[in-house]
Each structure stands twice: as structure tokens, then as C-alpha cells.
Amino acid sequence: MAETEDGAKAALYEAFAATGKALGSGKRLELLDLLAQGERSVEGLARTAGLNVTTASAHLQTLKQAGLVATRREGVKVFYRLAGDDVARLCVLLQQVAQDRQPAVEPARVAFLGPDGGREFSVPQMRASLQAGTAVLLDVRPAEEYRAGHIPGALSIPVGELADRIGELPEGVEVVVYCRGEYCALAYDAVRLLARRGRRAVRLTDGMLEWRLAGLPVSAGAGEGA
């Protein structure tokens, strides 16, 4: 009886470990971070993550086997999405624990995002400024991510186009910038670019991932400036 119980316990913990093994790749975590923005094709994920399609497909299959992502087919294309909000919450928790417990995270974060994140706005500050007409909200993610879901009222100018399209932003107001999440560099890059061009810019403390997980309203479609 004891041997049976030991075997069942081992099987249970091995089943738990399978999820951990699926998360044991930086590229797979990056793919989950991208899928937290909305459904994407294999080709789109590969392009954004800097992978070839074959490698991206292999990573995605590992995530699917662990039950972390789901798929749908449209013709010859396969589209992936997170299996649920619990997967997004798991990714955020993993990042938070690593930030608190893993000494290597902070220097890597600074090297990636830069030593100075500049000024930040909380969601209540952003809402108050938008209501007062003293700020504009800017989404600097790729247009397909914006179309998949964005904060209501946000303008869309992908960070790679911002230098050429800065004139589309109204003058004399604070530009509140957001991107994918806490560890996304797009908003940091956009704030620095805007500051160099003499614009007042701040980064929203929440990205789209945190916004969704908070259960806040999300708009979809082309919207403004897309």
C-alpha cells in the first residue's frame, strides 16, 4: 500500500513538474509574454521573438503539451493564444518571484531597460490627467497587438514609427506611454525619444498585461492613430 501511495505521489509531483519544465526556457517565456497581448500566428510570433518558424513551432508545441496555450487553424495558418488568464497570472508571479529572489534579475533588467525609467504615472494619475485634458495616452506596441486589445482612448503609434509620426501627438500635453508589461522596453524607448524631442512624457506603471489581469476595460480594433 505504501509503495502504491509513493508511486502515486511521485506521479503527481512529476505532473506538476511538467509545467515547470515547459516554463524552463527564456524564449518560451517570451512567447507567453507576447501571447498575453492577444492571439498570434506562428509566423508573427517567430518574427517578433527573433526565431525561425521551425524553432518557434517547437517551443509552442511544448507549451501546448503542457496545457499553457491553445490553438485554432485558419486555412493553412495556425494561431496560438494563452489557455487562460491563469497562465498570464502565473507568468507575472514568476517574474515577481525572480525579481525578489534571483540576484541576476536586477542587473539584467537594468541592462535591458536602462538605469533610469524616468517619471511614471499610476492608473489613477493617468485617468485624472486624461479627464482634465492635460495628457494623451499612447500605445507604442506593434499595430497588430493594439488591434487585438488596447486601453480605451489610447492612440496607436508603434515605437519604430514614433520618430516620424511625433507630429500626430497634440502639443502642450503630457504623453503617457504604455506597452506590453512591466518588463517591456518599448515604453522606455518611447519616453526617452519623446524627451529628446522636447515632449513631456511619462511611462504608465501598468502595461497591457497588468491592465488585463486587473479586469479593466479593453477595446479592440484599429482605433485612433493605428
UniProtKB/TrEMBL annotation:
<dbReference type="Pfam" id="PF00581">
    <property type="entry name" value="Rhodanese"/>
</dbReference>
<keyword id="KW-0238">DNA-binding</keyword>
<dbReference type="InterPro" id="IPR036388">
    <property type="entry name" value="WH-like_DNA-bd_sf"/>
</dbReference>
<dbReference type="GO" id="GO:0003700">
    <property type="term" value="F:DNA-binding transcription factor activity"/>
</dbReference>
<protein>
    <submittedName>
        <fullName>Metalloregulator ArsR/SmtB family transcription factor</fullName>
    </submittedName>
</protein>
<feature type="domain" description="HTH arsR-type">
    <location>
        <begin position="8"/>
        <end position="102"/>
    </location>
</feature>
<keyword id="KW-0804">Transcription</keyword>
<keyword id="KW-0805">Transcription regulation</keyword>
<dbReference type="GO" id="GO:0003677">
    <property type="term" value="F:DNA binding"/>
</dbReference>
<dbReference type="InterPro" id="IPR036873">
    <property type="entry name" value="Rhodanese-like_dom_sf"/>
</dbReference>
<feature type="domain" description="Rhodanese">
    <location>
        <begin position="131"/>
        <end position="220"/>
    </location>
</feature>
<dbReference type="GO" id="GO:0004792">
    <property type="term" value="F:thiosulfate-cyanide sulfurtransferase activity"/>
</dbReference>
<dbReference type="InterPro" id="IPR001763">
    <property type="entry name" value="Rhodanese-like_dom"/>
</dbReference>
<dbReference type="InterPro" id="IPR001307">
    <property type="entry name" value="Thiosulphate_STrfase_CS"/>
</dbReference>
<dbReference type="InterPro" id="IPR001845">
    <property type="entry name" value="HTH_ArsR_DNA-bd_dom"/>
</dbReference>
<dbReference type="Pfam" id="PF01022">
    <property type="entry name" value="HTH_5"/>
</dbReference>
<dbReference type="InterPro" id="IPR051011">
    <property type="entry name" value="Metal_resp_trans_reg"/>
</dbReference>
<dbReference type="InterPro" id="IPR011991">
    <property type="entry name" value="ArsR-like_HTH"/>
</dbReference>
<dbReference type="InterPro" id="IPR036390">
    <property type="entry name" value="WH_DNA-bd_sf"/>
</dbReference>
